[in-house]
Amino acid sequence: MAVLEAPHMPGRNDEHCGILWSVESRHESKTVREIVLSLLTTIARDDSELVLLFCSPQFQIAEIAAAVAEYGGTMPVVGCTTAGEITPHGYQHGTITGISLPKAHFSLSLQLFEQLAQFDLADGFSAARTLLTKHEAADFHASMPNAFAILLNDGLSMREEAIASAFGNALGHVPLVGGSAGISAVKNEPNMFLGGRVLTNSAVLMLVSTDLDFRVFQTQHFEALAQKLVITRADPSRRVVMQINAEPAAQEYARLLGLTRANLTPQVFALHPLVVRAGGRFYARSIQKVNDDDSLQFFCAIDEGIVLSIARSGDLVADLEAVFSKLRDDLGSVQATIGFDCILRYLEMEQGDMLADVSRLHDLNNVVGFNTYGEQFGTMHMSQTFTGIAFGGPK
Q1: 355-364 and 343-351 helices cross at what angle (nearest 10)?
Q2: Residue 24: count of CB within 10 angstroms of its CB
Q3: Pick from 103, 94, 78, 79: nearest CA to 20
Q4: How many CB atoms lie within 10 A of CB 139?
Q5: Largest CB tally within 10 Å, which of 23, 146, 290, 382?
Q6: Distance (Å, whole) CA 56 – CA 191
Q7: Which helix (H) or strand (E) holds 140?
Q8: Residue ranges in the chain whose pLDDT is less than 70
Q9: Residue 386 — left, alpha, or beta (φ > 0 → left; ψ -120 to 50 → alpha)?
Q10: Residue 179: closest CA among 208, 213, 155, 206
Q11: Among candidates 260, 232, 217, which has minimal Cα distance to 367?
Q12: Which positions ≥6 away from 311 have C-beta within 8 Å?
């Protein structure tokens, strides 16, 4: 099931739009500094308006940020760690992949939000609305009337629901897409940077105007089953569910699937998320892990009293083919796509031997992005979706 949203004035044109992307792999003969400088030399030019870097947690964020500062330039460089990289060569691990948007077709307004543990909905709404007002009053607005927003979040802050709600409502007609960064469980390190500055507990909101035709999209491939369950005890602030149907959460979830608690693995979670119905559509509330006390840790906020359904997986590849087919029908051709793909989707692809097919689709549609710990679309934070923005030619 897919949702595609268009800017206010749809159009078609196959002209090349000058977006650049590339990837650099970890290599014993190269330092992190050399890898980052090589990548930026390829994609970051004097005429770049914005550069995004998606970085394997095998690299030290501080070293990446230091290399970005050394490279210099006037364009903002924003980056985060990944659970896997979507590169020009398909899914990869242990790489840094990047994409740059040229000034000729894009104009950027950017705001950094720090100390997300204290994020206030009203203040976030006001800040995003102010950013939008200034952005639309700028000189470039007449020639680039259509805008979208990209949001990168610290996924460890567990504040994505509040952030997406505040920003999505404030931006109104401007579509918002984004993804949550995480870090390796072995490392207790920051997971984002802006220029040469390492960020913790932060979010970066990028408001971008363009004269290119584009579509924002979100898709998932699950079918809700008839059997319902109720969250009877939870701690929403920690995204932990202790009881389902008044039983220990992990044991009850396993029972409903015809499994035992010992059978619960990330692959099971990937194939059988819980889904909630909102606005006539189902949204995944995906499980991250089983805790020692038989509670379930979720990727999204979950509250007591919510009625959920267990879902089963549909045809992921066919769903993705349909999404890209519709994008090409709308845009004429897809010049580039910035994509945010949930880590649980990757696990399902890996288990189902689908990585080659999906990588082929990404290659055909010029997808650059990363595997996330959660995706944002409009006012919603969700998981187990593929979300992004696809660009066509100039209007």
Answers
A1: 120
A2: 23
A3: 103
A4: 8
A5: 382
A6: 10
A7: none
A8: 1-16, 184-188
A9: beta
A10: 155
A11: 217
A12: 222, 223, 224, 225, 272, 273, 274, 275, 282, 284
* Residue 286 identity (one-letter amino acid): S
- What is the number of alpha carbons within 13 Å of residue 298 lying toward its C-beta? 28
176, containing H or E segment: strand 176-181
Instruction: Print burial letters for 298-320: b (CB count within 10 Å at least 16), e (below 16).
Output: bbbbbeeebebbbbebeebeebb
- Interatomic CA distance for residues 164 and 224, integer angstroms: 25
Predicted model pTM: 0.90
Give the separation between CA 386 and CA 283, rounded to whole angstroms.
12
Using DSSP's 3-state secondary structure scheme, residue 343 falls into: helix
pLDDT value at residue 15: 36
DSSP letters of 74-93?
SS-EEEEE-SSEEETTEEES
Please, what sign has the CA dihedral across residues 297, 163, 284, 339? negative
Identify the pLDDT of residue 17: 79
Mention every residue, 6+ apart, whose C-beta is less than 8 A from residue 336: 17, 19, 21, 99, 366, 368, 390, 391
* Pairing relationship of beta strands 146-154 and 176-181 according to DSSP bridges: parallel
How many angstroms separate the CA atoms of 98 and 239, rounded?
A: 31
**Which three-class secondary structure state does DSSP give residue 326?**
helix
Q: What pLDDT, on the 0 to 100 scale, is given for residue 38?
A: 96
Instruction: Residue 336: count other Cβ atoms within 10 Å of its Cβ.
Output: 21
State the pLDDT at residue 2.
58
- How far is 163 from 233, CA to CA, in rounded Å? 25
3-state secondary structure of 141: helix
Question: What pLDDT, in 10s, does the model give residues 13-55?
Answer: 333 579 999 999 988 789 999 999 999 999 998 999 999 999 9
User: What is the residue type of 250?
Assistant: A
Burial class (CB in 10 A: 0-12, 13-18, 19+), 186: exposed
Class of residue 327 by CB neighbours under 10 A (exposed 0-12, middle 13-18, buried 19+): buried
The residues pairing with 198 across neighbouring beta strands, listed in sequence order, are: 193
* pLDDT per position as a tens digit, 126-162: 999 999 999 999 888 778 889 999 999 998 888 899 9
